Amino acid sequence: MSATRPASREPRLLLPGLREVYAAYVRAAGALPALPSALQAEVWASAQLGSLEAAAPNAEGYRAALGDLIMSLRAAATPGAKAFLRALAAIGPAEARTAAGRAADALAAAEPSWAGALGRVVPGMVWLIQEGPLDGDRLVCEFRYEGGADLHALAVRLGYGDEPGEVVVVGDVPALMNAARQAMQAELCVVQPYDAAAVGPRLRAALAAGRTFADDCHPALAVARHRADALPGD
Q: What's the domain of life for this entry (predicted)?
């Protein structure tokens, strides 16, 4: 497929009743190229995917809506739509990444300088923070982009049965860990290193599609699942 092939303005949608919803995502994507980093772009895209997943009645409906969104972004052919497609290809659900990447490749729009870094992260230290027997485990997994840039962390609080109670992406890791160590000195929690090979399977199971998540968890789920997949362990 040529990279300069004109986009179709009226894609055939599986869920045509949501056409205006997809159009809203396309308009919102106009702000994406101005973001300063791949991490901020991934967090933005994750929030959009989270709202789409939260609104879907089931997994099949989510997949249909995601496919429609990819076609709508392809048809829009704007720089923001292309950047959104690149983010979807990097951190979106595995079954949608190839289609999103091909759709982005088909567009001639310019790309942000960070587009090539999307999804290219290397895991670092993993920490276990325990505040009490009723608060569950808080797992903090550090990551950097290839080349060592943009240290950040995935922080997930797991309750009984490893039910996710909080899923956030932390940009200021030193501040987070300094606060945790101060709390530990005040005997408010325990902070200790955790085996990355053990936390990987644990997080992947906890964040698997099809589970029920608190509303506050949805915005970070796409990034969280991508980062969990980057951790070692079977």
A: Bacteria
Contact 139, 162 (CB under 8 A): no
| pLDDT for the residue 223 | 98
* Chain-centre distance for alpha carbon 225: 7
Question: Which DSSP letter does residue 213 get?
Answer: -
State the CB neighbour count (10 A cutoff) for residue 162: 16
Q: What is the pLDDT of residue 136?
A: 79
DSSP state for residue 6 in the 8-state scheme: P
Q: Is the pLDDT of residue 143 over 80?
A: yes
What single DSSP character describes residue 8? P
Residues 153-182 have pLDDT tens digits of 999 999 888 899 999 999 999 999 999 999
Q: Is pLDDT at 5 greater than 70 in this prediction?
A: no
User: Taking the C-alpha atoms of 209, 213, 216 and 221 in order, what is their torsion angle to the nearest 10 degrees?
Assistant: -20
d(C-alpha 194, C-alpha 119), whole Å:
23
* Burial label, 47 (beta-carbon count in 10 A; 0-12, 13-18, 19+): middle
Distance (Å) of CA 66 to CA 50, 96, 150? 11, 8, 29
> Phi/psi of residue 127, each to 5°?
-125, 145
The domain locations on the chain are 16-116, 120-230
Phi, psi angle pair for 144, to nearest 5°? -135, 155
Residue 74 DSSP SS3: helix
> Which residue carries 């496919």 as its tokens?
67
